[in-house]
Design a protein that fits this description.
Strand content: under 5%
Mean pLDDT: 90
Shape: elongated
Helix content: 55-70%
Number of strands: 5
Order of helices and strands: HHHHHHHHHHHHHHHHHHEHHHEEEE
């Protein structure tokens, strides 16, 4: 505990600067009060029990403790601010283990790149999930670095409890655990301080913890209808085909961020640094420690492979995954890896300057994406409210009752301004993949209706077979009334 206090007070300036940077990162979510994805139903019901069905009981208990009630209230942005603050504090652990002795600018910029993750933007936009997801990241970091230079049964039990708790918050964070261990292995290989026994203990503890969670805890909460989503791919030809498809989906998401020529160049430089690490280990140990050289090279190569694979997310190993950007938590380690390896290879000012440039090359586009998405989701909510007001106007012209239902023929299209943001930042389309207003987003549209006290049920089982000739036309909505159903067709613009 004394070491932690000394570490914190020695880096209190870095902590304050990182806290400010973290606040700038989450500010768009603070300014936007729109419901995002699952928020739409949690805001109208206050029900936290759905997390039980996802195998995340600690989410329920945490939100109940925060609200002092079994029903959740929308206390945005307090949960997000708490989560971001605790997470920034955990970056002091990264400074202690990886960046001790470097100048303050190097510490702050490298940790800032770790904090400002472009794929985690969708996570922070959840009103209710953001704090539990941050808690999963925090527990992941602590579980990896808790007394990493010592191993005994009591420490491994504590590590196991932390990992199980992390899985009970957000299972996708397991990829961060593996990728952080991989970074640690690579750094130790570069510095020729690899402790194979310690790494084996850590990996064994992780696998044992996952088995305990998946075989004992998760089945207790996850119903049969949800358990299919958590099934692993079979070890056969079909499984290989599923794995290839899952990897392709994850790669497509990652390339949506690294889609410009500049970002292509940045990613190439990352792989150049990885190669530089191989050459450094080889040249450093070829004459003096050739016997141990192959062990170090093998550990470094394995670490790089794990980092890259965990960037795709461990959900690629599931049979029916719903792969989304919020699950790519291994990307935290990928973003940090090359700059960190570069300064481990050389502590010169030039190497630190290049590492800082690498991080800034990721930070600025990520911040731009955060603010663009904040503006986008606010515009989307405003646009949907305008459509709903038009739909209410249509209903005043029809004779409706409590049995009247709404049938949607298509989806509400984005505004021109929203399309510009999608084209500049393709990742925004992936953030909004399950949220919208229309035929293909029935669950969200129904929740949006209820949140605005528009108490009509959507019925997509009704088949409208005739030629659509609208009785009423407004700016964004055309409608016709048939068999106590209001048939709605959305228009792209006025």
């Amino acid at each position: 505990m004394k070491k932690w206090k000394i570490c914190f007070f020695n880096n209190k300036i870095e902590f304050i600067l990182l806290l400010l940077i973290g606040f700038i990162y989450i500010l768009p979510r603070i300014l936007s009060n729109s419901d995002y994805n699952d928020d739409i139903f949690r805001s109208t019901t206050g029900d936290a029990n759905w997390w039980y069905y996802n195998g995340r009981p600690l989410n329920v208990w945490l939100m109940r403790a925060l609200n002092q009630n079994v029903i959740m209230a929308d206390c945005t942005p307090i949960p997000l601010i708490l989560g971001a603050t605790f997470f920034v504090f955990c970056c002091i652990i990264i400074i202690r283990y990886f960046l001790n002795g470097y100048n303050p600018a190097t510490k702050v910029i490298l940790c800032a790149a770790f904090i400002i993750n472009p794929f985690f933007i969708s996570n922070i936009f959840y009103k209710y999930d953001s704090l539990p997801m941050y808690m999963a990241l925090i527990l992941s970091i602590i579980s990896v670095f808790i007394n990493r230079n010592r191993s005994n049964i009591f420490l491994e039990i504590l590590r196991s409890l932390l990992i199980i708790a992390m899985l009970c918050f957000y299972q996708a964070a397991l990829s961060l655990v593996f990728s952080l261990i991989a970074i640690d292995v690579c750094v130790n290989a570069i510095n020729a301080k690899l402790n194979i026994r310690s790494e084996i203990y850590r990996l064994a503890t992780i696998f044992l913890s996952y088995i305990i969670y998946s075989k004992i805890i998760a089945p207790h909460y996850i119903p049969a209808s949800f358990s299919e989503m958590s099934q692993h791919i079979p070890l056969n030809r079909e499984g290989i085909s599923i794995l290839k498809n899952n990897i392709k989906i994850s790669i497509d998401i990652i390339l949506d961020f690294y889609h410009t020529k500049f970002m292509h160049l940045l990613s190439y430089f990352y792989f150049f640094v990885y190669l530089l690490g191989f050459l450094f280990i080889f040249c450093k140990n070829y004459k003096t420690n050739r016997k141990n050289m192959f062990l170090l090279l093998g550990a470094y190569f394995s670490g790089i492979c794990i980092i890259l694979f965990c960037t795709l997310g461990l959900t690629v190993f599931l049979k029916n995954p719903d792969i989304k950007p919020r699950m790519l938590l291994g990307s935290f380690s990928f973003i940090l890896s090359a700059p960190l390896f570069l300064i481990c290879i050389s502590r010169t000012q030039i190497a630190q300057f290049l590492a800082i440039l690498l991080c800034i090359g990721q930070i600025i586009p990520a911040l731009s994406l955060s603010y663009s998405f904040g503006n986008y989701i606010t515009q989307a909510s405003t646009h949907d409210e305008e459509v709903l007001r038009e739909l209410e106007f249509h209903l005043t012209h029809y004779i409706t009752n409590s049995q009247t239902k709404i049938t949607l023929l298509n989806d509400n299209t984005p505004t021109l301004s929203m399309k510009v943001k999608e084209n500049v930042h393709p990742l925004i389309r992936k953030f909004m993949a399950i949220q919208g207003f229309g035929k293909n987003y029935t669950w969200y549209t129904q929740g949006f209706f209820w949140s605005k006290e528009f108490n009509y049920e959507i019925d997509q089982t009704y088949h409208f077979n005739g030629t659509f000739k609208p009785d009423i036309k407004t700016c964004h909505v055309n409608s016709v009334f048939e068999n106590n159903h209001v048939i709605v067709e959305f228009q792209p613009h006025c």
